Amino acid sequence: MSPAPTKFTSPSTSCSSDASTLRAMRARPAISGTASHPRSPERGVALILVMFIVALATIMVVELAYSSYIGGRLNAGAQRSLQAEYLLKSALSLAQILLKADATAEDRAFPEDAWAYFKDGISVPLEFLGITEPNLSMSLEIRPEDSKLRLQQLDPVSSLAKRDAEILLRLFQNPVLDFDNDGELDQTGRVSQKEFDAAQMVANLIDYMDADTTSYDDGPFQGVESQLQNGDEFPNRKIFRLEELSAIPGFTPLRVQKMLPFLTTNRDDAKINVNLAPQELLEAIDSNVTSSDIESIIEFRENPNTGPVKQIIQDLTPLIGSQNDFFNYLTVGEAQRVFQVIAKVDYQTSVYFLRAYVERDRVGPGATVRIRSVELF
Questions:
Q1: How far, in whole angstroms, is CA 314 from its chain's centroid?
Q2: Beta strand pairing status for 330-331 and 272-273?
């Protein structure tokens, strides 16, 4: 059997077919997902615009949330401040009521003098005022001015100048005040020195009040009046208000606040009421009288069976012996007429203060207690 004849295709026919196929492929649009074309400028601008709008909206939302937060805090602060103001004024009214109700001929301790319950400052139960807010506390202090050391007696030309300065020095060095070790830095900027100890503070106080413009210099007391900067000078006059102390180098706000229970400018008599004076002040009066002596006096005056002290020499000599220098600074006094009232409202995150001076015209029925001055902080 003879083989089938082989079929040959003409070269011209094959080339013509390939050319037709190539032309058809070129004419067909590309559908491959991998085709690469340059991105149009319009698409880029649109993307940037969208991102800008999103960022702007985010900023507006954050700003609105922050403004709402600040507004809420301001409203809460205003409400708290108003509440604190009324609480402080209520405490002042309570002090006036207690002082008006006092009918004892001479001031002593609680319960004979109802106001004396607050003489060292104690907390006031807010439940009595119908307030149950958590983290809120209030305290009240009612302190007679004759239980304090009168600043005006610190007179450098007096024969008792050195003795009075030493009393103030011992008070400033008492552990309750501890001005030698508290690390307080001067905030007046009147001298280059940054820290002042107790002795320097006393000297600066004398410089502030004496008549000359030279630095006080007496033993441990070294003043700075001659070192004041930029032509500054002290007024060289008596102090009329305790707030003036903050202008004296070394008398920082914290130190002045600690002094309030012990110092006064609101009385003429220099003697101190032994029945109401703080222990720290009694200890500072005379270095020959020990802390145990003062504790014996306090125990005597506050014991209902023995106190109050009615006669200085007769009552105190059996307790501590004859101490004439100490006794000369003391008085039992009549019922005090001028009182300092300090009230504090503490929210833990913020504290509000009231300080007032009140005066009663007499003791007993019909007494009037008027406000001499009041300050809110």
A1: 43
A2: parallel
* Residues 180, 75: Cα–Cα separation, whole Å: 43
Residue 106 token pair: 């001479």
pTM for the structure as a whole = 0.73
Q: Please give the full DSSP string across 232-251, using - where no structure is assigned.
A: -----S---SGGGGGGSTT-
User: According to the model, what pLDDT value does residue 341 have?
Assistant: 95
Render pLDDT for 150-206 as a digit per residue (tens, 0 to 9).
887 777 666 667 888 999 999 999 999 999 999 999 999 899 889 999 999 999 999
Residue 297 has pLDDT above 90, yes or no: yes
In a 3-state reduction of DSSP, which class is residue 231? coil
Compute the average pLDDT of residues 272-279: 91
Q: How far apart are CA 142 and CA 113, in angstroms?
A: 11
Q: How far apart are CA 105 and CA 333, in angstroms?
A: 10
Distance of CA 91 to the CA centre of its chain: 19
Residue 333: CB atoms within 10 Å: 18
Q: What is the 3-state secondary structure (H, E, C) of 288-352?
A: CCCHHHHHHHHHHHHCCCCCCCCCHHHHHHHHHCCCHHHHCCEECCCCCCEEEEEEEEECCCCEE
